[in-house]
User: Fold this.
Amino acid sequence: MSADAIVEVAGVGKTYEGRVQALADVSLGFPSGKLSTLLGPSGCGKTTLLKIIGGLIPATTGEVWVKRRKVEGPGPERAFVFQDFALLPWATVLRNVAFGLELRGVPTAEREEIARQQIVEVGLAGFESTYPHQLSGGMRQRVGLARALAVDADIILMDEPFSSVDEQTRRKFQEELLDLLRRKQKTVIFVTHSIEEAAYLSDRIVLLSPRPGTVSKIIQPNIARGQRSPDEIRRDKNYLDAVDEIWQILRRYVA
Amino acid sequence: MTLFGRRIPVGLSLAFWFIVWEVVGRARLSTIVPPVSRVVLAGITILPSEKFMRAAGISLRSFAIGMALALVLGIPVGVLMARVEGIGRVLGTWVNIFVSAPISALVPILMGVIGIGETTVVVTVFLFAVFVIILDTQVGVRNANRSLVEMARSFGARRLQIHTKVLMLSALPEILAGVRLAAIRGVKGVVIGQRLVAIIGVGELFELYSKHFLMEEFWSLVILVFLFAYLMSEAIASLERRVEYYASTR
Assistant:
């Protein structure tokens, strides 16, 4: 496995309740500082794999190594962004963003200072004392992202973060996410079922086959992003080729 | 309230029944129904009297201690029952039996065990209140969003933190609903307990008035106790409304 893999998955399998086999013998390395996507049809175990990497559920077989340490549970070097946002409905945006730090016992003034910065970073300045139910889906997920950034983890695990967000908001959000994460040099593992999203965002796309999930293929779109606009990227030949290549593989899995 | 498609203020129905009561009372149809105006007058005389004040003081104290015990014990037991499957199974049946059991039937037995006095009343209030608190807390914690628990774990929350910072707050609407019902039942507990013990507090007054057939005083006391229970339940309900948006977002 490559030397700069910050997350290594070795022979991971997962069987639920002794019956449903979600994952079988997955071995993968996730390079540091890159955005990798786990892509596959529903039921391929991509979220399961992400949660195993996050230490939220144990693997039935195999091991996960993060920064050369074996994963036994959640850790401070990993932060999760949830599909359903998982915001505390009784807490303001500020307290939600600071919640990871609150759990670690960081003093109030310090954690709120950090949270305020992150709220600005994700474009929610002015909403600090708003409650989640007053925000749109896209804004709620910005809170979820800010919370993950606030704990300053090297690795951000995102579980279909845009699936509950409308299409326009999603595009804008994707662009800003790319910009933000590249500036911060984070390693991102991103679960999605959208081919376009995977091709647009990723340095590396891991295609999973369904039931039990195994690595079907790894694609590196190699899109030159540089200073180019999102629309230029979406017309890029490599982007379009990647979308096509993914579809040619995935169409076999769709019944 | 609407009647024949027209909105009718809630106060109107109350006024209507008071008029009916007044008419029935003045017609002297029954000795146990004096006119409502005389009941109100009796209430105004009773309220500032030293006898009533002392009785109310004793009753409030029993109520407060019994309720406090029910809260302190009921909420943790409810949380445990929701979180530890074995405890939930073992205690679940008993809590469900006791929440619907006629606890007033137990009071004479309590008197035999604990003696005739304030302690018996406190225990009665506790028994009237605690089971509904346990049950509602359990339901609230059980219905708490799993995703929030997972989120807290992913950010390194310890077991205690998951309970205090996520589960308890998640369950707050249900816990408050339980506390409101418990408070209403607790008021019943005080009155029933004291009546059966029959020598202290508001129960003593009830006993006194009914024995001497002082129906005006008797009814005014009923109304005062009802008002107390109603105001308390409304106060808790207003707290509930403040946390209502929880439910819509989970």
Remarks:
- Chain B touches chain A through 23 residues (CB under 8 Å).
- Residues 50-248 of chain B form a domain with the MetI-like fold fold (CATH 1.10.3720.10).
- The CA atoms of residues 98 and 131 of chain B lie 7 Å apart.
- The mean pLDDT of chain B is 85.
